[in-house]
Amino acid sequence: MTDRHPLEEHLNASASDIMSAIQGGFRALIDVKGKLAEYFLFRKLEELRARGRIGKVEWIDKDGQPDFLVHLPERTLRVECKNVRSGKEGRYRKGEGYKVELQKTRNSKDGTPTRGYRLDEFDVLAACLFNQTHEWQYLYVATRALERRQEQGMENFLVIMQRVPPRADGPWRTEIEEAIRDALT
What we know:
Layout: H1 6-11, H2 15-23, H3 26-50, E1 57-59, E2 68-71, E3 76-83, E4 98-101, E5 124-128, H4 130-133, E6 138-142, E7 161-164, H5 176-184
């Protein structure tokens, strides 16, 4: 019997070595923070499911798919989880909020530029504030409240760099249940 984590067994490496490799890799650290944001959001969603506040929750890890499907009696909502940007570049001037980048990680396989999100690709955005606050906290918003692009022919696409307030304000909510209600109305 072993006390090692299954990932240690899978990689044939100690937890310390795995952590050192992540710490030494800029891209790996970004990927881990993204996956941790999803993991902690999944725990919140599962807690709501256990309390009967929402139905089944599906955590999806596929390109071109939302991060979560949240099943409700009325319909299934798609939830996208993104980290706000880090450092000074991730903040607006004078404490006006943080920046979250709404862009997919890859273009389409045929090379066409499809990294931007259309308004109809997800229903709720969960913006994780960790990169600015060092806490796994979120602000949530119904997608329809996000800023849209103004260029002709792009009106159904979301602006890539969206403003996230430092605290709940306007359509931004501290509880995902509130953003879910907003998305349903």
